[in-house]
Amino acid sequence: MAKRDYYEVLGLARGASADEIKKSFRNRARQLHPDNKESGDEAAFKELAEAYEVLSDEQKKSSYDRYGHEGVKGSTRDFDNVDFSSFQGFGMEDIIDALFGGGMRGGFSGGGGGSRSGPRQGAHLRYDLDLEFLDSVFGLEKKITVKRLEDCTTCEGSGAAPGSNLSTCNTCQGQGQVKQLVNMLFMQSYQIIACPDCAGSGKKIEKPCKDCKGAGQTRKSREFDVKVPAGVKDGDRLKLQGAGDKGPRGGVFGDLFVVLNVKDHPEFVRDGFTIHVKQPISFSMAALGAEILVPTVEGAKVLKVPAGTQSSSQLVMRDLGVPHLNNPSRRGDHVVHVVVETPTKLSGEERKLLEQLAEIRHEKLKVSAPVPDKSDASSEKEASGADHKKDSQSSSSKKKKSHEKEPEPAEAEDKGIFDKIVDVFRPKE
Predict the structure, then answer these.
(1) Which of 47, 171, 33 lies closest to 113, judged by CA?
(2) Which pTM does this prediction carry?
(3) For residue 262, which phi and psi values (nearest 5 degrees)?
(4) What does the pLDDT look like over 144-178, one tens digit per residue?
(5) Taking the CA of residue 354 as centre, how many other CA atoms within 13 Å lie in the half-sphere pointing to its CB?
(6) What are the chain's domains?
(7) Of the four, 91, 301, 328, 373, which is 20 to 30 A from 343 by CA?
């Protein structure tokens, strides 16, 4: 069966503009798509798709205008093998995107085999940046070197050696995509994937570029300035837009994410915007009060220790902590944890002074064991003698009545809990 004229299929006269072709295709596609229960016609929709693929591409359109169907033979897809049932439930714009690479939304690609979103963006990269503790508090600017993919300067990203030609890929017929059958348990489905032979470019390289081995890209070292703001913390990420890999075949650059690794400080401990530090002081400083130099992120600062300060007390130095990330004028506090140290070695003079202090404060450095009261001891002795006498009388009474048997229940009641347990577990005779 002879093919109909493509202009006739679209309902247009020869010489129609690109906008007229686009508008006519959209209107007819909505009417003829198989999902349309009233006017859907799958065969007519496939014929319409083929006509649009040719007339929306300037090169194919020119060849068709001069030589008819023979001029574009082999350059169009076989829409008879497209499974339109796989598009069920999708909007018309999504279906057109899948068929023609995003033409209806961002300008038609002319059937050139691009993906729905056009050239792919390059990969995002990660760079781990080690920071000193104080650099995370106050921020800094630093240069970093990153190796990223860029277009090969020899072949200008084409992957072909200079002077060689690019031919249409036979596997995908220049579309850059192929349909793949996927088996899913008890059903089969089709999915559109990038052509494995041309990597989605739609072109085959006859002679690959020596520098990039036909990939069209090489990895190069680039320097970037990283501005680390004040107040960042360990694990924060900074985004450098467009500093990642270059997208293949005209794709845009990806982004670079700088991950900050903040080193620990030997003295300071950070908790949010607050910095904590441990400060030892002597007994006399704690008792009398003093002014001492305390380490802070801005260097040593004077701190007044009140008289009578106890060990583990916390003294706060306002606005000497970490600046707020989005508001550097605001800062956290610097908290000093006081530790009163006890001297382990004393000179003779120090010992004498401390003994005098203890004497003034009526503090006893030595105590004696308590001596029992004599009157209490004689009372205890008398009580002990009376008990002994009572026990003797009881024993004598028991001897007199030894011939008399006491009832067993009474004897059992006098037994302790331990004796009862022993009786229970004693072997039977």
Answers:
(1) 171
(2) 0.55
(3) -90, 130
(4) 999 999 999 998 888 888 888 778 888 888 787 88
(5) 12
(6) 6-106 (1.10.287.110), 125-165+206-262 (2.60.260.20), 269-360 (2.60.260.20)
(7) 301
